[in-house]
Each structure stands twice: as structure tokens, then as C-alpha cells.
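Exercise 7. Predict the structure of Trehalose operon repressor from Amphibacillus marinus.
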Amino acid sequence: MKNKYVLIYQELAEQIEDGDWQVDQYLPSENELKDTYQTSRETIRKALNLLSQNGYIQKVRGKGSVVIERNKFDFPVSGLVSFKELAEKLDQEIQTVVHELSLISPNRHMQKQLQINDQEQVWQVTRIRDFSGERVILDKDYLIARVVPTLTEQICQDSIYAYLEGELNLTISFAKKEITVEEPTVEDKALLDLTGFQNIVVIKNYVYLDNAELFQYTESRHRPDRFRFVDFARRHH
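Solution. The predicted structure, encoded as C-alpha cells:
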């Protein structure tokens, strides 16, 4: 026999899928649901947690549980592709806004990330990805200027990788990736639409050329409700 919280989750999920609860509509409070289902508040919390984990609702501090869009996009974890290449596969209106493009002297943190000294210069590129009017990804790229001597806003608007491979004839080979869940920074909150979200998913990329030279460090900061990070694994015998 299923636990009561699972049954409540299934009933609420079915109601959301049937349109009884619309996107951006708040579910009844925990107390109201407790009375409706004649159960404990802890049971209701478990049911709501399942709804949140499965992408039906987002818990908003001080307001309750709001029904959200379930059209999450699959982002491959193991692949090394440009955002433009991914965007072309998505049935969405997607825009890239170049917020910053500058040539900087790297601080100690960036020297460590790119394994360089303070004599090197680095391109700093900050881009906002807008999905159907919502700013949901903040991409922060750092590229060694010795390897990439020129960058323009137009290149960054279109595709940096297309420029590197097509114009500079560089061969991008592999990347090391780290995935973390973090609290949004002041910059995240200023540049992304994060109202009601207390966490973001950060994918850090260390990207190498075919001669095993590290030339790029990237932080791709995602609002968690719109993306599902996927991979394919095979067991070797």
C-alpha cells in the first residue's frame, strides 16, 4: 500500500496535468491541504517536496507553492557543444545579450582557474540567455588572449566557438566539468529573473585545445526550473 503522501502527490500532480491548477497559480497553503486531506502537516510537506522534485511546483519563501511550466530543456552534461548549437535544437525563442566584453588582467582566482601568471591578459565575456522573455542563464567566459587575440561583441553575440574553429582554426578538444548548486550572487540576482528562487545550478568548464592546453574557463549559471542536465552512461564489463 502506498504512503499517504505519495497518494496526495499523485492526486495533485494529476490535477496540475489536467489543468485544474494553472501555471503561476498558488496551491492552497499547507494548513489548508492538511485539512482537505485530513492528515498531518508533515505528510503534506512530503507530498509538496515530491511535486517540487518532479518539476510541478516551485516553493516561494513567504508565499507558498506556485505551479510552474514543466517544459524543462535537456542540457547534455558530457558533451562539449556551444550554446548556439544547443539552442538550434530547442523549440524556443532564444536571445543572447552580451552584457560585458573586456580585456582584463586576471586576479589571483582567475590565474588559478586558467593556470596562468599575472603577465597574461584574459578576455572576460558575460552573456545573458533569454528564453521566451525570461533571463534564465548567465554565462561568464574567460579566454586567454594569447590564444584568442581578438573578440568582438558580434562574435560573442553569435558563437565564440564558431569563430575559434572557423576563423582561428583552433581545435577544441575536451573539457573538465564541475556541477554545483549555489546561492545566487548579487550579480545573478541583478541579471537573471530569480524572483522566488533561492538556488542556481552552476556548471564550471575548463576547456582544452587538442594540444592539451587549457585556454578557457567558463561558469554557466542556470535557473533550476528550466533545465534538466542529462548524460548517457554505459557499464563496461
